[in-house]
Amino acid sequence: MTDVYINWNMLFVEFSKPLWDSLFRFCVTLMKDKVSAEDLHQTGLLKSLNAFSKFVSSYSSALQTDADVRGLFSEAEIQYHFKNWLYKIVKNTFLDQKEAAKKWQFEDNIDAANEISSLQASAHLSASISENNPSLLKKEQDSFYHFALDDQWKTKFHQLNEKQRSIIFLAAEDYSYKEIAAILDIPTGTVMSSLSRAVQKLKVGSKKF
Q1: CA-to-CA distance for 102 and 25, rounded, in angstroms?
Q2: Smallest Cα–Cα separation from 167: which of 202, 198, 146?
Q3: Distance spanning both ends of the chain, measured CA to CA
Q4: Would you call 133 helix, strand, or coil by DSSP?
Q5: Residue 58 contacts by C-beta under 8 Å, 6 or more apart in sequence?
Q6: Residue 133 β-bridge partners
């Protein structure tokens, strides 16, 4: 029988490193300051590292070598799930650190109560948006990075709740509605309506939008 030897630490770094910068920006979005964001980033990556072998094994129990794991990660579907999994761990770590799970749920309930009217108001927009080519997400990606250093914009951005900031950020990172919904564990419709409301809040009083 062949001995199983997989260097999980090395492979985790190999597969996750291209996402580190984006994950850190997500942490800044949640924590508002870089020092706290660095702590969240490191804690989230450590938790991910410790759970990495379990994540991989959930997709295949027949892995024997590093090459087997690399072969598994050559599949686009695994890369997609791995990326979402990393973001979920960072998000859940944030909620644990801030003891904000109840607040997050409360915000979900508020969104659910407002969702019907919000979706009706934006029905013409949602009907015209393609999941594979979301023009609204592209627009917010451009706006986010163009105005991110503006103090007035930054102040309004951090006045949004954690979920709205997360949605705006992930949209700016060019994630689709479906991917954002998967990362934040909320319905796609809630992503769209929350994004629309958040964008309107950011536009109020700003001549740059």
Answers
A1: 24
A2: 198
A3: 64
A4: strand
A5: none
A6: 130
Rounded Cα distance between 109 and 12, Å, is 36
Q: Which residues have CB under 8 Å from 120's CB, separation 6+?
A: none
Q: What is the pLDDT along the chain (209 residues), one digit of tens a residue?
A: 345 689 999 999 999 999 999 999 999 888 878 888 899 999 999 999 999 999 999 998 888 899 999 999 999 999 989 999 999 999 999 888 776 545 555 555 555 445 434 433 333 333 333 444 445 555 555 555 555 545 676 778 888 888 888 888 888 888 888 889 888 888 988 898 888 888 888 775 544 43
Neighbours of 132 (CB within 10 A): 7
DSSP conformation letters of 26-70: HHHHHHSSHHHHHHHHHHHHHHHHHHHHHHHHTT-S---SHHHHH
Q: Which helix (H) or strand (E) holds 74?
A: none
- 24 vs 14, 37, 86, 129, CA distance in Å? 17, 7, 11, 29
* SS3 label, residue 120: helix
Query: Taking the complete model, does pTM exceed 0.85, yes or no?
Result: no
Place of tokens 């929350």: 194
Phi-psi region of 133 (alpha: psi -120 to 50; beta: other; left: phi over 0): beta
Cα dihedral 150→151→155→158 (10° resolution): 60
